[in-house]
Design goal:
By secondary structure, the chain is mostly beta strands. It contains 2 helices and 35 strands. The protein has a domain of 143 residues: Lipocalin, CATH 2.40.128. The strands form 9 sheets. A 5-stranded mixed beta sheet has the order 1-29-30-31-32, with no helix packed on it. A 4-stranded antiparallel beta sheet has the order 2-35-34-33, with no helix packed on it. The N terminus is likely disordered.
């Protein structure tokens, strides 16, 4: 009997060891593209849903959590403070809290919490608040190490929905889309001290752009808006044999030299109206880069970069994919994501990356479904893990989809009981646990193929 028990322990240990687990230390996961290397995950969502590990009330905000080891980092707003908290990733037991005052008020009536996910790097956590407070915190203790008020330091004009571009750590540079004046659309900081290393992207990059004005109004030169950041986050990539930083500003795409911040390439890309933003990150496949927006028929553009990343040719453009606030994921040369700016035009699509051809789409409009029909995602976000798409709709509907350009192969859907609109933070997966949040709750689900007892 003792031998059989010992053998069972060995077998179970081997099964656990064979699964691949991973941290989720930054926005869009360990590689910044919505992909996780984790394996041995569920192959179907049962009607009863996935096991709930914990379900906790949280403050307001749209920032997805980040995870490193047993540390779960949540950035949210409680009262008149922006709060960074560390919880135990399996139990949600509080470890430490770091907070500071905030007076941010969203001018359009959305919640006033932070929009940027925490960035965990080494023994530090970096956050970027809704007012532009850039903060470094010790991961183990919660001690605040330094803070920069970028709104004051760089003369940043007020943005539409507050600050929403999560910083990127590139080698030993903290790269931030600041959106300041006169030449600080993007800035790099010393992660140890917060000192400015370089600042770049100014009006000179947008010279020669056309004038445009509404009938009866004076014309406006688009280049005058060069200083505004977008809600996309910087992306590091190698294009044309050269390491670059891709920043989708409010005016369009720029490729920067990481060491000096010098502009290598720029491409105008924004809706031709003031009330618009770019929010989806650039998507990179080889030397090709896709940028997409849902505002006023902006659609998508695919660019192929040449040697040195100083020039690019347009591969295709069109309305096959119009990404609003989520970034599409790529599986086997195909893009998967929710196209459409608002709920009435939302659809879940598969689009061929090489050509922009829509392979399939499924209507996800709430208005198109009655109370007797299955719930829909509306708009949503998805991540890739273990050969599957974990999909979260903005109303709290969780789905599992097998990527297939021939058809939409759904493997179950479940309305998470405590989640409701708006679930605008993307799913987070770490060590077999799926973290989902809205404005009021953070839910942790066991997504392993064989949940632990």
């Amino acid at each position: 009997m003792l031998f059989r028990a010992a053998s069972l322990v060995v077998l179970v240990s081997g099964a656990v060891a064979s699964a691949t687990a991973s941290d989720w230390p930054r926005f869009l996961g360990p590689t910044g593209d919505g992909r996780s290397p984790e394996t041995h995950l569920v192959r179907r969502i049962p009607e009863a849903g996935l096991p709930v590990v914990f379900d906790r009330a949280v403050g307001t905000g749209y920032a997805a959590p980040s995870v490193a080891g047993d540390a779960l980092l949540l950035f949210h707003r409680i009262g008149n403070e922006e709060v960074v908290e560390s919880w135990h990733a399996r139990t949600a037991e509080p470890q430490w809290k770091c907070s500071y005052p905030t007076a941010y008020q969203d001018p359009y009536g959305y919640n006033n919490g932070p929009r940027c996910a925490p960035l965990i790097h080494g023994d530090r956590v970096y956050t970027f608040g809704a007012e532009g407070k850039l903060t470094a915190i010790h991961l183990g203790t919660g001690a605040r190490l330094w803070q920069r008020d970028t709104a004051k330091d760089f003369q940043v004009p007020e943005a539409f929905f507050g600050v929403g571009s999560t910083p990127l750590m590139d080698e030993n540079r903290l790269v931030v889309m600041v959106g300041g004046q006169p030449n600080s659309g993007v800035a790099a900081f010393d992660p140890a001290t917060g000192a400015t290393l370089w600042q770049s992207v100014g009006q000179k990059n947008w010279e020669g752009l056309p004038m445009l004005g509404w009938p009866g109004e004076p014309p406006v030169r688009w280049g005058e808006w060069w200083k505004q950041a977008s809600y996309a986050s910087p992306v590091a990539a190698t294009l044309g044999g050269r390491r670059v930083l891709l920043c989708l500003m409010r005016q369009g795409l720029v490729a920067l030299d990481p060491a000096q911040g010098s502009v290598l390439y720029s491409r105008w890309f924004r809706a031709r109206v003031e009330e618009s933003v770019n929010a989806a990150n650039p998507v990179v496949v080889g030397d090709d880069v896709l940028i997409s927006s849902a505002y006023y028929k902006s659609g998508s553009v695919a660019l192929r970069f040449g040697a040195g990343a100083t020039h690019a040719t347009e591969v295709w453009k069109g309305l096959g994919l119009e990404m609003h606030w989520a970034t599409p994921v790529v599986v086997d040369g195909h893009l998967y994501g929710f196209s459409g700016r608002n709920e009435p035009d939302a659809s879940f699509r598969c689009v061929e990356f090489r050509t922009g051809t829509v392979r399939w789409q499924r209507d996800e409009r709430w208005a198109a479904h009655s109370a007797t029909q299955p719930p829909v995602f509306g708009r949503g976000s998805c991540i890739v893990a273990d050969g599957q798409l974990f999909v979260l709709g903005e109303g709290g509907l969780l789905g599992l989809v097998r990527p297939d350009p021939a058809e939409c192969r759904e493997l179950g859907r479940w309305q998470v009981p405590s989640l409701a609109f708006p679930c605008w933070a993307g799913p987070v997966l770490s060590n077999g646990r799926l973290y989902l949040r809205n404005e009021k709750r953070l839910v942790c689900l066991d997504a392993r193929a064989v949940p632990a007892p």
